[in-house]
Amino acid sequence: MSFGLDEKVALVFGAGSCGPGWGNGKAAAVAYARAGASVVAVDLDIERADETRSIIEQEGGNCLALKADVTKAGEVEEAVARTVSAHGRIDILHSNVGIGDMGNPIDLAEDDWDHVIDTNLKSIFLICKHVLPIMLEQESGVITCISSVASLGVRSPELIGYNVTKAALNHFTRTIAIGYAARGVRANAILPGLMNTPMIYHVKGHVAQYGGEEAMVSSRDAQSPTGKMGDAWDVAHAAVFLASDEANYINGVILPVDGGLSCGI
Questions:
Q1: How far apart are CA 51 and CA 25, in angstroms?
Q2: 102's torsion region: left (phi>0), alpha (psi -120 to 50) or beta?
Q3: Which of 18, 170, 204, 263 is the most buried (most CB within 10 A)?
Q4: pTM more than 0.85
Q5: DSSP class of 121
């Protein structure tokens, strides 16, 4: 099985990487392109989206890079409209949006809480609001949301906003899956576990919690049942499969990609 995506159009929100290397969204966008899809790479930072576009084009793929703030309805609507204008359809919607500020309910500022809620949860509402009508008109489409094993159990109480919004994202995904299954639209969530991606180095206060980068990597490796963190390609390959025709009866699934970590939660 090739899990090919020839002639498919993949719209990827959060397609850039917050630092050097491969973030989940960047890897997913490139993986979709390698599987044959035309990709629209959307990111809050256009330079990050352009980096993803450049990689795809250098490999012979087709990619359009766009800038959008997923918490702004108008910017989401414009990104969707430009995708349809360029390609006439949207077959794959991939939402890789997610942030986490360290803090408990006492210490976390209200503005920071609102920012996490808007970025992690309001965003998928806005994205689906504008993409679902297109998929329903096509009578086909696949939605993949990137959640986290943090949605299943409390591993870090200091990431309360992240934990709560990712749990809500799971149920949002299942609700979409059931609500539109009879009309040709599937929706699934991927739950990365302990992954070695640029994000873990950029969450404010995360590295300091471990006492430094080397200690953080060592600790996270040791916590994984495999003895080593996963990476963005583990998530990307799962996303390609879920988007493929071979997965056409997989709907409403909350899929951990975590080396077995969630078995102990």
A1: 12
A2: beta
A3: 18
A4: yes
A5: I
191 sits in the region (left: phi over 0; alpha: psi -120 to 50; else beta) called beta
Residue 1 has pLDDT above 70, yes or no: no
Q: Which residue has the tokens 């939605």?
A: 143
Domain 9-196+231-256, CATH among 3.20.20.70, 3.40.50.150, 1.10.10.10, 3.40.50.720 = 3.40.50.720
Domain ranges (residues) in the chain:
9-196+231-256
Q: Which of 165-174, 177-186, 187-196, 213-222 has the lowest mean pLDDT?
A: 213-222
Distance (Å, rounded) from C-alpha 53 to C-alpha 48?
A: 9
CA distance 163 to 3: 32
Six-digit token string for 167 = 């749990």
Q: Assign residue 146 a region: left if phi > 0, alpha if psi is -120 to 50, beta otherwise? A: beta
Cα 233 to Cα 197: distance, rounded to the nearest angstrom: 10
What's the rounded Cα separation, in Å, for the pair 169 and 107?
A: 24
Distance, in Å, from the CA atom of 226 to the CA atom of 183, rounded to the nearest integer, reads 40
Report d(CA 152, CA 221) in Å as an integer: 20
209 Rama sector, left if φ>0, alpha if ψ -120 to 50, beta otherwise: alpha
Mean of pLDDT values over 121-150 = 98
* Residue numbers annotated as active site: 162
AA identity, residue 43: D
pLDDT in tens, 62-89: 999 999 999 999 999 999 999 999 999 9
pLDDT of residue 138: 98
- Token pair recorded at residue 181: 């299954």
